[in-house]
Amino acid sequence: MKTTQDDIQLLCGLYEGKEASFRAIYDKYFESLFLYAMKVLNDRIVCEDIVQDIFVSLWTKRREAKITSLKPYLFQAVKYQIFNYFRNNKFSREDLTRLNIVDVSMNVIQKLEYSELDQMIRDTVVKLPKRCRHIFVLSRYHHKSNKEIAEELEISVQAVKNQISKALAFLRNNLHHEEAITALLLLLF
């Protein structure tokens, strides 16, 4: 993996003890390292701790570290910490094998983000009242028009619209602000 000029400058600043360089590395890589860990562990708190520990170690050992390529170094550190987590918690060989097949490409990270959001939406949809949930699922997951749903359930088109509006409001109120915006955009289109 090729090291970018930006990463080389950040590493130089890190070795010199420049907090701004460390902060820039943190800002640049925290999210992707966290999502990489989440792909394997699916435990937000553990993953945040792992990534935070890596950055603490990066700062405290900055003078001894012989890092030639920043991004691979950081991802290898996450992989190593995940392995230690599995080992210390007596996870199965299957769990360890799963760790070895994780792909860190942006495409996978984007799929993970979508998958997480989709699961949050589905978990929230399950909490809707039965009739509202049924209409919402027919509309958004079975891609039926309001008219088709109205005919199938023998209700008015306006009743379908009301139930979908009710479902969207429920989602908006039960998801975090950023998640709600993204979820509603996904569900509207």
Automatic annotation (TrEMBL):
Organism: Pseudozobellia thermophila
Any matching Pfam family: Sigma70_r4_2
Lipoprotein found in the keyword field: no
RNA polymerase sigma factor 70 region 4 type domain span: 119-171
Family under the similarity heading: Belongs to the sigma-70 factor family. ECF subfamily.
PANTHER family: RNA POLYMERASE ECF-TYPE SIGMA FACTO (PTHR43133), RNA POLYMERASE SIGMA-70 FACTOR ECF SUBFAMILY (PTHR43133:SF46)
NCBIfam families in the record: Sig70_bacteroi1 (TIGR02985), sigma70-ECF (TIGR02937)
Domain RNA polymerase sigma-70 region: 26-90
Keywords: Sigma factor, Transcription, Transcription regulation
Protein name: RNA polymerase sigma-70 factor, ECF subfamily
Keyword GTP-binding found: no
Gene Ontology MF terms: DNA binding; sigma factor activity
InterPro entries: RNA_pol_sigma-70-like (IPR039425), RNA_pol_sigma-70_dom (IPR014284), RNA_pol_sigma70_bacteroid (IPR014327), RNA_pol_sigma70_r2 (IPR007627), RNA_pol_sigma70_r4_t2 (IPR013249), RNA_pol_sigma_r2 (IPR013325), RNA_pol_sigma_r3/r4-like (IPR013324), WH-like_DNA-bd_sf (IPR036388)
Matching SUPFAM superfamilies: Sigma2 domain of RNA polymerase sigma factors (SSF88946), Sigma3 and sigma4 domains of RNA polymerase sigma factors (SSF88659)
One GO BP annotation of this record: DNA-templated transcription initiation
